[in-house]
Design a protein that fits this description.
The chain is of the alpha+beta class. Helices cover about 45% and strands about 20% of the residues. It has 2 domains: about 1-75, Rossmann fold (3-Layer(aba) Sandwich), CATH 3.40.50.300; about 85-120, no CATH class. The N and C termini lie far apart (about 50 Å).
Length: about 120
């Protein structure tokens, strides 16, 4: 686990019992997922309840995982994060798929309109 954790950027080298930050816990969770799954992983709100710095660390790790050829399915309400790291965006409304669009075709305004069903001008 330590070698996987180091690969994805966690700098945690701690004794057995230590309090880890939210970002460190997420980094370890992602490293654990990568160790078990070689092709794809599901990330449900991976930046929720994290500070800005920890969010950036987690997004950087997700980007490095993608660079290694591991697909990530990201569930997030953080549209700036989605627009930053997604290749394709599946938009749901009330639990139903509305559309799938390429990142290049997506803007915050368009996504909000698709999510809510309202035109955003």
């Amino acid at each position: 686990m330590r070698s996987r954790t180091c690969t994805f950027g966690s700098r945690t080298s701690a004794p057995k019992h230590v309090a880890l930050s939210g970002g460190q816990r997420q980094a370890i969770a992602i490293a654990r997922a990568v160790a078990w799954c070689k092709r794809a992983m599901l990330l449900d709100e991976p930046t929720a309840a994290l500070g800005v710095e920890q969010q950036r660390e987690v997004l950087n790790i997700i980007d490095r995982v993608r660079a290694k050829g591991i697909a990530s399915i990201l569930v997030s309400h953080q549209l700036p994060h989605v627009l930053e790291i997604a290749d394709r965006i599946a938009v749901l409304r009330r639990g139903r798929l509305v559309t799938v669009i390429a990142r290049e075709d997506a803007t915050t305004e368009r996504l909000v309109g698709l999510i809510t069903g309202l035109e955003v001008s």
